[in-house]
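Renewal narrative, Specific Aim 1. Our central claim is that a sequence can be written position by position from structural information alone. The example that follows is taken directly from our test logs and has not been curated for this report. It begins with the structure tokens describing the chain, in the order in which they were read.
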């Protein structure tokens, strides 16, 4: 029987993020994916500013920025004329506090490929064609049986296996919520001859319902989103009728029913859920992939600490911190879908999400900073960026002679403002510095 510390089921963005975080901490894991080959579609193409900061920490930001582009402007078509308007994404300049202020578009398949490449560089691999069949769990660990008959013993199991999650179903946890549209939707990646790639083309009053064609960076493809009734006679026919251009090929397509659903528990003993296995979003607002990545980023360092001997109570904070955020984000996604609003801005960038009520947040406020907040980037006295100092698996303490100490968690959120609590995160003494702002790695 193969033994490991963490068994991750599902190798989409959520599972890959968790595997990367464990790999850089030297924690043993296996990452299983039931599909025989990597996902090839563009589905979750919007990467929010907070997720870009996570990808900076994980060492993939340059590749993600090179693979993507800002969101294009909308060109809305009404019969024989069109109007060019705003974009889903903002176009704000970077600041010292927010180095990645804008929504960034990268086809999901490319995001996953970049994460796999980084994982490989750290010595990890995705095991494709390895489906989970069943598992048992106890206070001592998890015994998983794969479809191949192989058995794996793990200290912890994390289900990152999407909306049809085998792990969630085995735990008997239902996805509770509602359909928010009774009309099925189609999303597809299509190559269209001669269609202008500068804009996101919309036909809000097309026969059967709205249809949109968004150019995908780094490819010759457009992501097509429409109601299934719009393309009932064939996607190629519908696109040609609207644009006058021929569809050369359909690279990928999927049908889904817009819904908002989530579980009421993220943890059952030594088994956890993350990403779409725990919460399902409509595409409005670009929240699904991003919320899953941040689930994994929250859970990774906690699993690593417990594997190395920290109290298991630390793992209770995963559900306590992430479940309320998923509920709030689902509410936002529902409102955006129902109002068909193209305005996003600060509501969707996830920079303001916080853990202020968490048991891991303590101390006093400091200006606009509260324990539990995301720590903004800053320029330090030596000219370096704070985010450069935070990058890696450690906790960080900032010290100034005039102000309280700020302890920053491994996931970039403020744990404490006041007296040093560094030992709680790494079991090492607190570093005291006088003079200019300095950095200490726990």
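The sequence written for that structure reads:
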């Amino acid at each position: 029987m193969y033994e490991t510390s963490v068994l991750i089921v599902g190798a989409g963005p959520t599972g890959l993020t968790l595997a990367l975080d464990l790999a850089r901490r030297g924690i043993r894991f296996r990452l299983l994916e039931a599909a025989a080959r990597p996902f090839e579609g563009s589905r979750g193409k919007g990467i929010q500013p907070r997720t870009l900061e996570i990808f900076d920490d994980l060492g993939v930001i340059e590749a993600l920025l090179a693979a993507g582009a800002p969101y294009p402007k909308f060109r809305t078509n009404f019969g024989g004329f069109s109007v060019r308007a705003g974009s889903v994404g903002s176009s704000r300049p970077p600041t010292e506090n927010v180095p990645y202020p804008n929504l960034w578009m990268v086809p999901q398949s490319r995001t996953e490929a970049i994460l796999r490449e980084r994982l490989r560089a750290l010595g990890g691999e995705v095991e494709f064609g390895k489906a989970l069949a069943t598992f048992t769990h106890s206070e001592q660990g998890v015994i998983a049986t794969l479809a191949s008959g192989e058995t794996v013993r793990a200290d912890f199991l994390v289900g990152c296996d999407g909306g049809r999650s085998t792990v969630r179903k085995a735990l008997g946890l239902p996805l509770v919520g509602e359909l928010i549209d009774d009309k099925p939707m189609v999303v597809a990646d299509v190559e269209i001859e001669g269609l202008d790639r500068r804009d996101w083309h919309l036909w809000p009053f097309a026969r059967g319902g709205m249809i949109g064609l968004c150019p995908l960076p780094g490819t010759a493809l457009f992501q097509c989103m429409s109601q299934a009734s719009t393309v009932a006679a064939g996607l190629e026919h519908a696109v040609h009728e609207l644009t006058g251009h021929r569809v050369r090929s359909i690279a990928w397509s999927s049908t889904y029913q817009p819904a908002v659903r989530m579980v009421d528990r993220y943890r059952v003993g030594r088994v956890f859920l993350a990403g779409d296995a725990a919460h399902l979003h409509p595409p409005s607002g670009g929240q699904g992939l991003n919320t899953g990545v941040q689930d994994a980023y929250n859970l990774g360092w906690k699993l690593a600490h417990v594997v190395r001997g920290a109290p298991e109570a630390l793992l209770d904070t995963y559900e306590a911190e992430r479940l309320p955020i998923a509920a709030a984000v689902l509410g936002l996604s529902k409102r955006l879908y129902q109002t068909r609003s193209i305005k996003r801005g600060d509501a969707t960038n996830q920079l303001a999400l916080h853990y202020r009520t968490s048991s891991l947040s303590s101390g006093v406020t400091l200006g606009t900073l509260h324990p539990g907040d995301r720590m903004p980037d800053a320029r330090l006295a030596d000219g370096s960026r704070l985010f450069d100092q935070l990058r890696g698996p450690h906790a960080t303490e900032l010290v100034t002679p005039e102000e309280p100490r700020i302890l920053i968690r491994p996931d970039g959120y403020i744990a404490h403002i006041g007296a040093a609590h560094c030992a709680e995160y790494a079991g090492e003494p607190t570093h005291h510095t006088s003079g200019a702002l300095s950095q200490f790695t726990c």
